[in-house]
Amino acid sequence: MINLDQFTLIVLLFIIAPITGAIALLVLFFFEKRLDLLRMQKRQFELEKEFQKSLYVQLSQQIQPHFMFNTLNVILSLARLRRNEQVVGALEVFSKFLKFKYNTDEPMIRLEEEIRYTGHYLDIQRLRFGDRLQLSTDYDDRVLDAFIPPFVLQTIVENAFKHGLEPKMGALELSIQCYRSLDQVMLIVTDNGVGFHDSSYSDEEIQGHGLENIRTRLRIFFGDESSVSLKPGSAGGAVAEVCWPFIQEDVSKGVHEDASNENYA
User: Fold this and answer.
1) Which residues, listed in sequence order, are joined to residue 187 by a DSSP beta bridge?
2) Sheet (strand 227-232) strand order
3) Quick one: which H or E segment has residue 139?
4) pTM value?
5) Hey, is 175 helix, strand or coil?
6) What 8-state DSSP symbol labels residue 81?
7) Please, how many CA atoms are within 13 Å of residue 103, restricted to the half-sphere of its CB?
8) pLDDT tens digits, one per residue of 6-30
């Protein structure tokens, strides 16, 4: 026969059991939603990563047709003049330029590599313009190990030639400076080209030739600590300035690891 205490216990069990079951269902529901959220975040991260990778691949394959045609014309002119050694040298430099451009798919590289690659581009321009081109470079040894997205310097230099120097008659001047200012790397490219009075320096055309891409890629890794600007030079021409944090490691790997840790926390 059931006494009062046993009856009370049974009643409590009948009351508590549904509540416990409901709580258990709520907990399971919460964890299921949490897992779904983590899966969605992981998928979004993977899509973002693929999107960013596609941007780098797209940029690396954007060799301007006018530059290729001009380079081939230079090589053809040298061949017609039977300057065989210079033809061989031009082909070798052009080969190195293309090899780096189409084989580089890393999100970030050392500034030293970017300078070396841009040097191939400048060697070709020296062949093209000859004594008309006066080139000045000043690279601070302390920033050579800094990491940067690829094709930043080369794109800015190429813009200086296409929009500023190529349309100009007479002597051409290009200056490249790169130095460290506190915890920032400063890159300054100055030309004595036609400047902003020429229609080729419209904002839409400038952004369409890589500067907005540079700004976007720098912002991905460095946020508001990076900047890209283009302004008229004090004596004509144009001045392009790029600034980003001095970091001696590939922060793209850190971005990947941080995102992965958040997804599985």
Assistant:
1) 178, 242
2) 133-139, 172-181, 184-191, 238-245, 227-232
3) strand 133-139
4) 0.69
5) strand
6) T
7) 8
8) 657 666 666 777 777 777 777 777 7
Determine the Cα–Cα distance for residues 217 and 152; give it in Å rounded to an integer.
10
Q: Residue 20 to residues 5, 12, 13, 69, 195: CA-CA distances in angstroms?
A: 21, 12, 10, 77, 76
Determine the Cα–Cα distance for residues 135 and 157; give it in Å rounded to an integer.
11
Per-residue pLDDT at 246: 94
Scanning the structure block, which residue is given the tokens 């798919």?
105
Average the pLDDT over 33-54 and give the result. 73
Query: What sign results for the dihedral spanned by CA atoms 145, 148, 149, 154?
Result: negative
Q: Is 147 left (phi over 0), alpha (psi -120 to 50) or beta?
A: beta
Instruction: Give the pLDDT band (50/70/90) at residue 158.
Output: confident
Q: Helix or strand or coil: residue 252?
A: helix
Q: Is the C-alpha dihedral spanning 78, 84, 88, 89 positive or negative?
A: negative
